[in-house]
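Late entry, written up from scratch paper. The run itself happened at the end of the previous shift, but nothing got recorded in the book at the time, so transcribing now.
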Amino acid sequence: RELAFLNKGIRIVIEDERSAQKDDFCYEGGIVSFVEYLNRSTTALHDPIHIEGDKKEVQIELAIQYNDTFKEKLYSFANNIRTIEGGFHVSGFKAALTRTVNAYIAGNNNLPKNMQNIKIGGDDMREGLAVIISVKLMEPQFEGQTKTKLGNNEVKGIVESLLNEKLAEYLEENPGVARKIIAKAVDAARARDAAKRARELARKKGTLLDSSLPGKLAECQYADPAERELFLVEGDSAGGSAKQGRDRRFQAILPLKGKILNVEKARFDKILRSDEIKNIFTVLGTGAGREEFNIEKIRYHKVVIMTDADVDGSHIRTLLLTFFYRQMPDLIAKGYLYIAQPPLFRVGSRKSGVYLKNEEEYANYLVQRIASQKNLVLNAPDDEAAMKQTPLSEDALYQFLQDMNAYFHALTILRRRDFDTNLLFILISEGVSSKIFLEDRQNLEALTAKLSGDKYTAGQIEFDAERGIYEMDILDKKGHTKLLRVGREILATADYQRMRIAYDKIKDKDCPPFAVYSKQADAKTVNTLGNLEELHTFIMAEAKKGINIQRYKGLGEMNADQLWETTMNPEKRIMLKVDIEDAEKSDEIFTLLMGEEVEPRRNFIQKHALEVSSLDY
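Output as recorded:
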């Protein structure tokens, strides 16, 4: 996508020929389209400002657009290579932007009084700015450990000169846009001053000093940050259990009261007024804000988010992740942030049992249990004769039940999305599995013949010349309602592919009637099931008999010993390490889900809601 943006008009196509899934990147607007793409989840304050020119054999192109957020998005490139660490072209841009806007303010007497006689700093000038900087030069010099910093110092003056000239012209010709940009910068400057005053006031009161740690913090004994762990725990109840269950030598506990502030929607001065966030800053000891934050001063090298396994817990976890991503990205980059994985289930007797991390482990436990207790006979005759047949081995039964679980899990999700499951089964049995099937018209004609005697009507077979495949709609018997389209859409449906792959593994054993009976020598009862779904329902019900199943929704439901044993003991616990693999995608998701714009978030939820397989209320 980046290459398509940077090379205006070039089309780049990436296609998965197995599933007919295709991405087509072509942007006639070039980097203007790029900056609009970056701002698609926000409200842009004006149309993109496009500046380009050649100076001293250096081609320069910039696209600038402000939005209503408080974040800076700056993407710089040299000869189409992303310069993540910046370089002289970025330095030239920053200097010229601040100088040009301040010169416009100084030389314009028609601005409102609150915009006159002020000088705006560089950080304030770039709040809410999305900008693409692209330079092309003959002999680029890349510096830095990863060679992603442009080291040609002559580029700085060239970029400055071009931007000074072109941006000044633009501001003179577009005073309305100029006022919006200045107003945005003035608001940022005022917020920064308010935050500075709030910090100074907090220092006078002693609330931002390490010597005055929050009273509810249960501190640990070790002094070395590399050995210390801080658990951010949801609520006083879970906090109490964690304080009792922890190893006080190296584990500290900070209970959080309710849901913290959503920092995506708040300026820094408001963030500092939040007691819970102020406590986190204070306990970590890093300082707060761009000017004061220092990751080297952090007091713990493991910061662990520990919340309940319910909707509120998920929301609190998301708010904390937003806070750390926006306010302490270095903490994530250093690998200090973790998410605790308390078990979701406890299964067994009341005196003894096993802890299971998630739904997958729970299902696996039930399958193992039933495979060790029951026999299964395929193509079973009557009850007495069934017990004389050779059943599946325990290993074969275990694998069969695992694959059957995967099949019905995918089927359940597809049913929730209103797919006709009988129709899906017909597609799977007829081999609708990859693009190869769709490339042969005869395959769809054979499928039409298969459907004609059933409760469906096949539509016209259509040829997609661009992809080289045939597609057709399948409707109800009367031909009024479209049920699905046989084509790239169904092949790209992940749960259809999961269902198909799982059925390929179990189809050789789909031989009803099925007979199920106990492995005990004196077993007399045989249960006969007529199809796979009856067998699956019966088997999973039998697996749950005779055991106590407890599903934890809150950490407070565990006593201190259980919390230590399952979630806090370094020798047994499981934790997720938070990492940023794709900064652009991460930024987009946080802006989409936690930002001000409602419509993009609604569209995201409507698109993905049916993919949720487990949700607590």
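The chain has a mean pLDDT of 89.
(Scratch paper discarded after transcription.)
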